[in-house]
Amino acid sequence: MPETPAAERAAASGEITVETVQHLAGLARIALTESELASLTTDLDSILANVAKVREVAGDDVPATSHPIPLDNVTRPDEVSDVLTREQALRNAPDAADGMFRVSSILGEEQ
User: Residue 38: helix, strand or coil by DSSP?
Assistant: First the structure.
């Protein structure tokens, strides 16, 4: 994704400016007050500084990870057992049609 001129300037200087935050807010169509601009400028500049510190420490010998401890899914083998028939499952349904549960629509008409 190509960077915008304001983002390029911020990356080159290593600093987030109020103009950069205003530009990004405009792209995102977010209205920000002066205090929000000041706060976000400080926060984003701090985040970039911390990312830079991590980049200094993380060398080629450090693998990228999302979790410090490996995650493994605990699964069990599938076993065939007695299951409900369609008629049994639909027996107590408040509304059913064509062998399926009938529920109210949750999406708008545009779908």
Answer: helix
Cα dist. 33→10, 40, 74 in Å? Answer: 21, 10, 48
In this structure, what token pair is assigned to residue 16? 């987030």
97 — phi, psi (to 5°)? -150, 135
pLDDT tens per residue across span 3-40: 455 555 555 456 889 999 999 999 999 999 999 999 99
C-alpha 10/C-alpha 25 separation (Å) is: 15
Q: Strands, DSSP E only, in the chain?
A: 96-97, 100-101
Q: 21 with 38: CB under 8 angstroms?
A: no
